[in-house]
Amino acid sequence: DVGGAAYLSLRDPAHHGWHERRGTLADLAADLRRGLTATLYVEPWPLVDDRPGLLGEGCGVQVEFWEGEPSGDLLAPGPNPYATRIGAEARAAAVTASVAGVDVPTLPLMASPSVTECRFPVDVVYTWVDGTDEAWDDARRARLVDLAGTALTREASGRARFVDHGELRYSMRSLHLFAPWVRRIHLVTAGQVPDWLDTGHPKINLVDHRDILPAEALPTFNSHAIETALHHIEGLAEHFVYLNDDILLGRPQRPEAFFSPSGMTAVALSPMTVDLGDDVGAPPYLMAAWNNRALLEDAFGATLSHTLLHAPQSLRVSVLEALEARFSEALSATARAPFRSATDVSVTSSLAQHYGLLTGTAFAVEPTHAFVDISNADLERRLRVLRQRDRDSICLADHHDHALRPERLEVVLHEFLEDYYPVAAPWESATEQ
Predict the structure, then answer these.
(1) Nearest to residue 158, comparing CAs of 178, 177, 137, 175?
(2) Distance (Å, rounded) from C-alpha 188 to C-alpha 211?
(3) What is the reported pLDDT for 157?
(4) Of 33, 157, 201, 317, which has the fewest beta carbons less than 10 angstroms from its beta carbon?
């Protein structure tokens, strides 16, 4: 049956001088019967405003047609990870494997995990707040009354740190589309729930700040503080990926993009240097990097020189527990700072990663990451470039001042996100307000 679902397309790649073709399963399959090519791709083709849209390379299923020899052997049409020839004896030893709930015949070699694959569960953790919640904002203002110094800067406590443009919904869609292997998603909030989220979905775990932070640290408006306690989430997998709500996957990713098969964590260093640490007016993230540097220099005699990309962060519960035990004073002070402060350390965006590099639990990688400041005047051009879908991950970073008018900014972001992530995730509630 080549009728298929309307949201699927068939792609005939550009091979042997022929141009690439794409069409519905029924239309292109009928044409290909007159001269079938050796490799085809079945790809999602969702409708966006009644026009077909693509989710990018790597989202489809490759279908190969192996040639039979008179001897009974099958020959592969090209390179693959397993074998170029399958003999009759091997074919007789075929087993049944379940792929996405469908039983298919395969060889034992192909059904077994390889030494290059991660075989452990991987979770995802988000931190998010609803900055439009009046009760939450009243608490934020009350917490600021008796504070001074860094906490009063807009980089530490300004409203832009908490503005929600709806990115979380699409970031979680990106997991559904591009990382279906994620075991569970833990959303850490200040007692708030996105109105579109079905918290009863088995893959979703809603976590309150009260569940992971000491009572005297609450209420908190400091992401550094919350990040000191992520490993306290009940039921969290040893290996997890931490995402801010403005970070999205840009194309399909395997767990091996974040962890080695032995469980080491991937670290994406930024070209941005930490510099000397003597600027009184430096932003809080840089002050935290200096504090991280001081801790590691004292403990290991080694200096960190670069920040990390604002990208997905690979973490391990055991490493965070080791940090909490070894640098308890610094982490405790950070956890109890209600807003970003000059004494903070940044556990999940620098300290844990550099500690891992120094202790043999981490390794450096260079992902293809896109950082887009949505406050810039060239935002629409930058978003058009992203539609090439050639980035592993995307950060839509916000700022306090914007070149685009607020109403225009919301339209531009919404149109981009709906076009890039058109398929709703199963945890999006049908009864949202």
Answers:
(1) 137
(2) 9
(3) 46
(4) 33
Residues 6+ apart with CB under 8 A from 418: 48
With residue 142 as reference, give the H or E element that holds it: helix 134-144
pLDDT, tens digit, 9 for 90 and up, residues 70-126:
888 999 988 888 889 999 888 888 899 988 788 988 988 888 889 999 999 999 999
| pLDDT at residue number 188 | 97
Residue listed under structure tokens 């945890």: 427
Q: Which three-class secondary structure state does DSSP give residue 283?
A: coil
pLDDT-flagged residues of the chain (< 50)? 1, 156-157, 433
Q: Could you tell me which residues come within 8 angstroms of residue 289 by beta carbon, excluding any fewer than 6 positions away?
A: 274, 304, 307, 346, 350
Closest-CA residue to 296 (of 330, 321, 268, 271): 330
- Whole-number pLDDT of residue 417: 94
Residue spans of alpha helices (H) in 274-389: 284-300, 317-326, 328-335, 352-359, 379-386
Q: Do residues 339 and 157 make contact, with C-beta atoms less than 8 angstroms apart?
A: yes
Element at 373 (helix H, strand E): strand 369-373
CA-angle at 295, arms to 289 and 300, nearest 5°: 120
Rounded Cα gap, residues 396 and 411, in angstroms: 14
Q: Which two tokens stand for residue 276?
A: 């000397």
Query: Omega into 13 within 30° of 0, i.e. cis?
Result: no
What's the whole-model pTM score? 0.89
Q: Please report the pLDDT score of residue 433 as a whole number.
A: 44
Q: Enumerate residues 6+ apart whose C-beta is below 8 A from 24.
A: 4, 6, 8, 9, 10, 45
Instruction: Collapse the DSSP code of 194 into the 3-class scheme (helix H, G, I; strand E, B; otherwise coil) and give the result.
Output: coil
Confirm if 164 and 130 have CB atoms less than 8 A apart.
Answer: yes
Pairing of strands 185-189, 204-208: parallel
168-194 residues labelled b (16+ CB within 10 A) or e (exposed) = bbbbbbbbbbbbeebebbbbbbbebeb
Cα angle, residue 306 at apex, residues 300 and 309 outer, rounded to 5°:
120
